[in-house]
Amino acid sequence: MMKSKLFILTAFASLVPLSISVAQTPTITHSQGKYSAQTPDWSKITWDTLPAVQQPGYLKIAQNLISTFGYDPSREWSAGQKVDSIVMLGDVDDAFKTSSLSLKSISAMLAATPKENAPSNNKLTLKDFGLMQWQTPKSLVKAIPELGNLSVNQVPPLEELFSKSGVATSGTISEIVAYNPQAANLKLGEIDLSKYSLNSIPGLQDTPLKDFQSWQQSYINQVPGLNQVAFDKMPQPINSGLGVVGIASVVLGTSERGDAKAGNDYFVSGSVVRGDRTVTVACTPGKECSYLEMGDFAGSQRGLYGKRWASGSSQQVSGGYGILAAVNGGKEPTGRLVYGSGFKVALTGVSESKGAADFGLFFRICARPPFQQKTCTPYFIGPVPWLPVSENDLVIVGTGQ
Q1: Residues 6+ apart with CB under 8 A from 142
Q2: Backbone torsion region of residue 45, taken as left when φ is above 0, otherwise alpha when ψ lies between -120 and 50, otherwise beta
Q3: Which residue, among 356, 400, 386, 49, has the nearest Cα to 241 in the 3D structure?
């Protein structure tokens, strides 16, 4: 029955090696003993600098579920589209806690590490702040209570909104909201928001994103400056994954097949389940199973020795949980939560002759309906090209959470 409520089509072709597109990803050299690798420099990586997704897709949610969620997480995207225009705030808030930020705090963070193309809030308009289009006088007063004490002519955008709709503008904003339900629910998108600066609504820039109505529906790039905040500067910084690191011993190609003797405990790759943790899944016996085999610094008696990271192009596993778990046929590429739950890392292609493995990042769509548990799709948005690994390089494995 759940599938009848979800209208989904996602393009998920066989994955291809992606290292050609990741040259711009900032890295630092991480060494352990005689081994080293180029690891992500999260102080320089932002939503804006992530490579584009390689495959198109879309998600269409039925109206009855939109009312359950309280907003519409539906969207579509194209191959080559930037991640910050696909991922919504609600998808990744548990991972990064971005909803606790305000426009003023984002501006202050960017000022501490100036960038050439960083936005100046003094030059931005209400149109630049994407979630303003579906705010109403009622939702604004709820988000910014002191706004209600002002007269309408002190807030020019609301004055135009009311006047355009034939609403009398005498009295305070709270009085109009309380006694005129129709006026209270007018959407600001009905006026030209590009005419008004962010300062035209007092208190707007000081208000946390989570206080605005349907903040979850805003794309990352619709919040001025958010896509330029480094991942290690997020309210909940990204996990470096360096707590668990192995060695790339050997890369084995598409001629490999799943082996019934190699159970789940032979692998580090698998599914992401409720609680946002990785549960390892073995390759299906007899089916294609290219993989990266690892070594452990402490030798053959330690945990990572001989473990396999299977390729997501070989193996799809169950993913997601709750209502949205049915999306993409309930499947995601096998992989790991290396850096936390913001995205899943999958091995996307191997070259046995070159002893190299390519990786990609996959994202998901999440919602938290009122008074219900969070629900997420499988990690199926991607792949976003990531840092390749060669034999005898370090492999960042992380804890799987």
Answers
A1: 211, 213
A2: beta
A3: 400
Which tokens belong to 96? 């990064």
Mapping DSSP to helix (H, G, I), strand (E, B) and coil, where does residue 173 land? helix
**Alpha carbons within 13 A on the beta-carbon side of 106:** 28
- Other beta carbons less than 10 A from residue 5's beta carbon: 14
Query: Tokens 């904003």 correspond to what residue?
Result: 173
* 3 state SS of 81: coil
* pLDDT single digits (tens) 126-148: 999 999 999 999 999 999 999 99
- Write the CA distances from 77 to 81, 86, 251, 333, 392, integer angstroms: 7, 7, 32, 19, 37
The residues with which 28 forms a beta bridge, in sequence order, are 39
Other CB atoms within 10 Å distance of the CB of residue 301: 7
Q: What is the pLDDT of residues 218-264, one digit of tens each?
A: 999 999 999 999 999 999 999 999 999 999 999 999 899 999 999 99
Q: Which helix (H) or strand (E) holds 107?
A: helix 103-112
Q: Containing H/E element for 92?
A: helix 89-96
Residue 303: C-alpha distances to residues 40, 59, 265, 310 (Å): 24, 39, 10, 17
For the stretch 256-296, pLDDT in tens is 999 999 999 999 999 999 999 999 999 999 999 999 999 98
Q: Tokens 């003797």 identify what position?
A: 261
| 246: DSSP letter | E
For residue 181, the 8-state DSSP code is: H
CA–CA separation, 284 and 397 (whole Å)? 22
* Distance separating alpha carbons of residues 76 and 60, to the nearest angstrom: 8
User: E-assigned strands of 240-318?
Assistant: 245-252, 270-273, 277-280, 291-295, 308-310, 316-318
> Does the CA dihedral 193-197-203-209 come out positive or negative?
positive
Residue 9: CB atoms within 10 Å: 11
* Cis amide linkage into residue 370, ω under 30° from 0: no
Q: Which of 352, 378, 353 is nearest to 364 (CA)?
A: 378
For residue 40, cis peptide bond before it (omega within 30 degrees of 0): no
Tokens encoding 307: 């473990």
Query: With DSSP H G I counted as helix, E B as strand and the rest as coil, what are the percentages for the chain, rounded to 5?
Result: 30, 25, 45
The dihedral sign for the CA sequence 195, 197, 199, 203: positive
What stretches of 41-162 adopt beta strand conformation (E)?
Answer: 57-61, 75-77
